[in-house]
Amino acid sequence: MASGDATAVPEAGVGDAAGVGDTAGVGDAPAAPAGPRERSERPGRPGRLGEELDDRRRERRSRWYRRDVRWSPYALIAPFFVFFLAFGLFPLLYTGWASLHRVELTAPTDMEWVGLRNFSRLLTDDFFWNALKNTVTIGVLSTVPQLLIALGIAHLLNYRLRGSMFFRVAVLTPYATSVAAATLVFVLLFGRDYGMINWVLGLAGVDPVDWQNGAWTSQLAVSTIVIWRWTGYNALIYLAAMQAIPDDLYESAALDGASRWQQFLHVTVPSLRPTILFTCVVSTIGATQLFGEPLLFNGGAGATGGADHQFQTLGLYLYEQGWVNLHLGRASAIAWAMFLILLIIGAVNWIIARRLRESA
Which of 11, 53, 232, 291 is the most buried (most CB within 10 A)? Predict the structure, then answer.
């Protein structure tokens, strides 16, 4: 009995424990977490509505992206064309229209049609031809020495020098100087009675020179201002082109026994022909539009370019006709004549560049 009772009790306990465990597992225990497969099948949004919203959002983003790719480049370049139309094309067209009329600056809306009369009048205008001759003379006197000096400076800066960055900044300083400040300084230097140039010439036994009233002397003085301001600018352009020349060419020339001067003549200069042509054209265009230097060099005499118009350029003559004599139609004709001259210069540049490419 004792052993039977002892055996029965554990059986009942086991049955009760099993029953309790089963009951607790069904009713009280927390639910087991969902497996990976169940989680993947569970939708993030309720049915088709979420999928439609996602599709719409993707379509909207795709549409904005296509518009951005298509129209953004035009938006980025639009400011240039807006300013060009406002300050470039419109003044050019309006000047061409005004050149066909008799119109005064005091009444710019009162126009009288005269056709090509303003242009035909320039053909017999002695002051126009004098201004054109002075422009060509000053252009030659300033462009040729300027580019030669710039080429020499660039050749020196192309070698490894101590403080080369300082010298590069120094040669560019005149270009960054105001044309008014530079011209006023040169007016003092070229003064007849107390100028430093005449003082140096006096040390050499040369009589004082009246730089402003002489024909050639005044043009030489104005050309000196232009040379001083623009030589460093062209020197840096030449320097950049020289640094693009392969070193192999110089090494081959050195192995053939070429000196530094021969390398410069037979390697550097031929490699710089396109750059030299570019600087010649740009300097010629600048000389055609020369205005600030001769205007300020004349002091308080205005736009006459000297007592005998000895250094009056086309820019000064345009200013005199339009803003001194108030003949806006004639000034417009002069402006278009200058524009045609620049077109001729551009055509010559294109022809020369094309022949250089063919010869190369």
Answer: 232
